[in-house]
Amino acid sequence: MVDAISADGYLVDQWRIPFATVDRARFIPDTIWRRNPAGGYLPVRKAENLRAWRKPIYRNEVVVTQVDDGVPLGPNGTGHSPTSSSSMPGVMAAMLKALDVEDGHQVLEIGTGTGYNTALLCERLGDERITSVEIDPDVSAHAQAALAHEGYAPTLVCADGEQGWPGRAPYDRIISTVGVRNAVPYAWVAQAGPGAVLVIPWATSYLALGLARLVVNSEGVASGHFVNTASFMDLRGRRQDGFIPQPDDEPDAVESVSELHPWYVAGDHPRGAFAVSVKLSDCEKDMLYLNDERTALELLVWDTAHTSWATVNVTPEAHAIGRYAVRQFGPRKLWDEIEAVYEWWAREGRPEYTRFGLSVTPEGTRVWLDDPANEW
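RESULT FIELD:
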């Protein structure tokens, strides 16, 4: 596993010994969860299938360690949604590289999870330098037991990590292993000293993608670029509400056609989608493939206020002529807004996500392109 993540270039020298020393398996619960092709998550129990349980642990893979906040909601004990996990080691290495710790630094970790990342921090800096906050009592208890068993004794707190932990502030470094949607908690910045670095997986309602590296200045403003991609489960208080509109139920939608393929603004390629996500951060999306060959799909976009939606349909016939059927409903014409953002992004030279950045002040979180002066 260490060799694999080293090959990607994210495992810098100061983290190689911690990754080689700390055994990830010692922090993984006896029951993990794997995705069910038919939907939901199936339990994999160490006592019943050791090989299947171990298989993802020593690979550069996410290991889902909790579903549905600890109470599986699917039929026959299956899970509906993952709510805690052990992150991909490669992503962890990239985040720790961005954190750029030095001997003597005090570190605050938001989201203890299994305790594996906490152990890596302890191995590098010493137990007394690490404070970790976990909101889920069961997850926190497991991490505490695993860390103690392996001989680590950081400061562990079971509390809402959105509030940080002022008891040991100021911190030199803050790392969040949970996603932050739209607004970065200013409490984290307030608990960081001048020159401190914050590494945060940032998302909007539209897209979870960017890993931001922010530096705190003497005026208490944290600012910096996106340095990598990362997608994490949300802070518990920032989860989306689960609402999805039902376009088929609305006959009064306005119909039109578009020459913009949805894939450029909503697919796996982040460039155009990232620009849309930061310009239209109050929108959500869902992509549904309509056949097994994935040659037909429908993009559904709606606003978080639940006032408007838009659909764009791609069929082989539409793709052949480059004209896609659009339906829009509500006071906002969301697909028109997306097209306008895409045109703006193209005029700006199709900037990669690394040209974007965040600034966090007591007044809120702002996104900018190239320079903090270019905020919107």
